[in-house]
Design a protein that fits this description.
2 domains, globular, Spore Coat Polysaccharide Biosynthesis Protein SpsA, Chain A, 15 helices, two-stranded antiparallel sheet, seven-stranded mixed β-sheet, alpha/beta, 52% helix
């Protein structure tokens, strides 16, 4: 037990160092260039987003840096999205169209984004998820970042307020995992695709790069298209720019714990690059969480120190991203939910059938 606790103590120390380095690096990377001349096309892939689109589109029309156009691709919605767009899009100055039939081998979102990329006319193409909530200065910040980079891909980390405790515990593991294990300097600059990171809720590329590479076509099979696009950038010898947008962008990723479980189960095995690795990570996470708790119950002082440090570290990261630091003591539940997601995702991907938003993707339908 003492050896296991000592190893975990070293790993926790590494996480603290990485988080501290990331915060210092990020603070120095705030965009300062003049982005007033950057022409941005806002492109929104939407499947069953009747509840999200009205607020998003209203916020997009109230930006201090006006987009050159806003285009929505309806991805065969059946929840009233089409009817709402037909009634309201023109008054908001929004263009929209219904997706063509999805070809074999494409995931719905990549197919919608590919069609949007064909229609856009701006200098930069911003692919924006419908659950994002941009403040008035969001596009100005993004334009400044675009004007100040040679990166192929620009992405952001937003604030992540949650609807309830369950989805907060699930969503909160994302920024915690990223900022305590991945040095952002390496994610932006190192050529190794294994160090790639991007946030698919907000992805921006130059139009000429997009039309030359057709990147969504290259990753058409991917549920986690953001990571695949970041890996593609690195394989091409290009960079990724990660912008701190917490002050100007909120994202309500999921409306319930069940929706969060399904959403991350869809993605986890691709993020870990295979069902087997997903299971290995689940085992490791379960052990890393259980050992200190067992040690604390047995009266090991070091175990209590580790538990306390994790509570503080989790609380700090969650507060940074708009979630309650008071949920920090619930991190064992968050870890358990993450294990469930990893195992569930491994099973879905192993049997070759993944369910999301009323669709079931088989291995065959994504390999065509």
């Amino acid at each position: 037990m003492t050896i296991a606790l000592s190893v975990l103590c070293v790993l926790l120390g590494c996480q603290v160092v990485i988080l501290t380095a990331n915060l210092v690096y990020w603070r120095r990377r705030r965009p300062t260039a003049d982005g007033s001349s950057v022409r941005i096309s806002v492109l929104v892939p939407a499947r069953n987003e009747r509840e999200n689109l009205p607020e998003l589109l209203a916020l997009l029309t109230d930006q201090t840096h006006a987009p050159v156009e806003i285009i929505v691709c309806d991805d065969q919605s059946d929840d009233g999205t089409v009817e709402w767009l037909a009634r309201n899009a023109q008054a908001l100055g929004v263009q929209w169209f219904r997706s063509a039939e999805r070809p074999e081998g494409w995931v719905g979102k990549t197919w919608a984004c590919h069609q949007l990329g064909q229609r856009a006319t701006g200098d930069w193409l911003l692919f924006l998820d419908a659950d994002t909530r941009p403040g008035p200065g969001f596009l100005a910040l993004l334009a400044s970042a675009c004007a100040d980079t040679d990166a192929l891909l620009v992405t952001v980390l937003p604030s992540l307020p949650a609807s309830g405790v369950g989805d907060a515990l699930i969503v909160g593991m994302v920024p915690f995992g990223v900022l305590t294990t991945l040095p952002l300097w390496l994610a932006e600059n190192h050529p190794n695709p294994g160090l790639a990171f991007a946030n698919g809720q907000v992805l921006a590329l130059r139009r000429e790069d997009y039309r030359e590479l057709w990147p969504h076509q290259q990753v058409r099979w991917a549920f986690v298209e953001d990571m695949q696009l970041a890996m593609l950038a690195k394989r091409l010898g290009r960079r990724v720019r990660i912008v701190d947008a917490r002050s100007v962008l909120n994202v309500h990723m999921y409306r319930s714990t069940r929706e969060a479980l399904d959403g991350f189960s869809k993605n986890a095995a691709e993020i870990t690059r295979g069902a087997a690795r997903s299971l290995v990570l689940a085992l490791g996470l379960a052990a890393a969480c259980a050992v200190p708790l067992i040690g604390a119950a047995l009266g090991y002082p070091l175990a209590w120190g580790i538990v306390g440090a994790v509570v503080v570290l989790v609380g700090v990261v969650w507060r940074m991203f708009g979630m309650s630091p008071l949920h920090g003591p619930l991190y064992p539940i968050a870890a358990l939910l993450a294990v469930v997601i990893l195992v569930r995702s491994a099973y879905w991907h192993a049997v070759g059938r993944v369910r999301w938003k009323g669709r079931t993707y088989s291995r065959r339908s994504r390999s065509g």
